């Protein structure tokens, strides 16, 4: 056996039976269970692992042989059986802790040792073999029953284990009694009933007194040495007095008092030792004629005295062992309770949130326990201690409105009677603490159903800062809402002003253009060359100003949501040619080649011809303005496979910086290139193009042109005729 060993006891299956071949690993040293002293254990652990089983088996067999010889030699004169047989308990313990093939070897050795011991005691060979077989059968039966009930470790740790242990000992006593009685009956060396009665009692007593030493014990309780000495002296004096040579009064019950004292106040090891010691003393004193049993059985065969004495020993064990097991269970339960309470205290007091334990009392929840965080949250650090708060109604520490919510959780309170939810299922909400704290707490209240619903736990989380932040956020949002409303009003006023002023400006500008045209045509008389040039400049700038006013009005209509049109069939090819013709003079003045690439057949869309032409005019004029002399602008109309038409306006101009491309369609945006080159414009043209495209369920986009320049693409859905797009013819090009 080593310090780390494999438990020979098989694991139990779901039906309570051991599973074959299953083992468990334990770290506690096995020698501590059989009780050798430290020197012997150290010597054993120093042996080679392969020789340890051999040494253990030899040691067990020598011990059993010594006990067997002692029992046979000390048998009462004229008795065919021994007065006590401690070898039975040692044999079961050894077989119980062995495993594998070692059990078979040990069983054979026990049989041989038993035969040898009986032969040395001058018993016939047949009797010796019969007794040896009965001893082996008893050992095997008790071992199997203990293994079946859970093993040695659980035998004396609970009342259920004790019951299994007592049943195993009882069955073992019956087996040896029948075997021994049958042996003497068959060999003619004794009476079946007398021998069976004596042997069953002696072996039963041996199992009950010796075997517990090998089944483990609880830790000894802390007792004063004076009490231990007094209890031991009382037991020894009482046993010696009751079973002394000159004592014949029937006082055999008196030692039970001292034994029960030990069972209640001392540890299980002490109980086992006192049972064995008192059993040995009673057996020896009764064998020499002392005590009430020898007096009562005077004139009877020795087997009668043996049976009475061992019955007394069995009764002592049956009285004391259950009491010691019950005390052990109580100690373990108290230890577990203390551990659970310590764990609860650690978690309860060490929680970073407030913790309350509340008890329902006449429609109110009163504080039973609280941690330091809860005390600080509920009192605001005003000097009140835990003692001041315990026993108070929880709602009394809260704001009156919050107290109503809390009282509504308690079944049977007036407030809970009108609640729609079920207070017994717990409650979660926010409450405010009364003055001086005024803190806001998030509360999670849960009933403890295992205590009949009278106990509740409450978790308190301080949300004062969160509430203040939410209030500040609501205030900021309200200010922002008012600011947005004011900005909306200002924006609407701006739009109204721009719309009104644009309308007011368009009338005089139209008059200026009209009178300039009349002067140019000579309606007011002929103009010389200088005068004509001046009038033409007035006309050009007036037309430019009118175009600006029209752009501003268009943007105003978009902002006002009144940008609309009546849809009709529009041929985008014709629209592209119209725009190109309108831009012909501008392209000629700029010395830029303007080309239209479009199908010969019409390409129809649903829209407004004037608005689409305006979009193409804006794209084309932008391309011409940003293309230097000698450059090229191409208007390309293509029909895509996804039932859309794309009108791309390409130029070989200066292009747009990549970092500014995403802002091209913003209102009043002008690129850094346009500003650097002092190119005239308001930044509204592309905004108007985007509005026209979206109004026609289309889109407009920008991409840099390979080799320099820009490509603006207007995408529009084709007009559907009976679900089929209007076909387009082949492409053609005209400059």
TrEMBL record:
Biased composition (Basic and acidic residues): 1-18
Ranges where the Histidine kinase domain occurs: 500-720
Name recorded for this polypeptide: histidine kinase
Organism: Pedococcus aerophilus
CDD domains cross-referenced by the UniProt entry: HisKA
Location(s), subcellular: Cell membrane
Catalysed reaction equations from the record: ATP + protein L-histidine = ADP + protein N-phospho-L-histidine
Keywords for the protein's UniProt record, in alphabetical order: Cell membrane, Kinase, Membrane, Phosphoprotein, Transferase, Transmembrane, Transmembrane helix, Two-component regulatory system
A Pfam family reported for this protein in Swiss-Prot or TrEMBL: HATPase_c
Region feature Disordered, mapped onto this chain: 1-35
Keyword Ion transport (UniProt): no
Every PAC domain range: 425-475
Span of the signal peptide: none
Membrane topology per record: Multi-pass membrane protein
SMART domains: HATPase_c, HisKA
Keyword Cytoplasm: no
Superkingdom, natural source: Bacteria
Primary site of residence: membrane
Residues spanning the membrane: 54-75, 81-97, 104-121, 127-147, 159-182, 194-217, 229-245, 275-298, 304-327
Documented EC number(s): 2.7.13.3
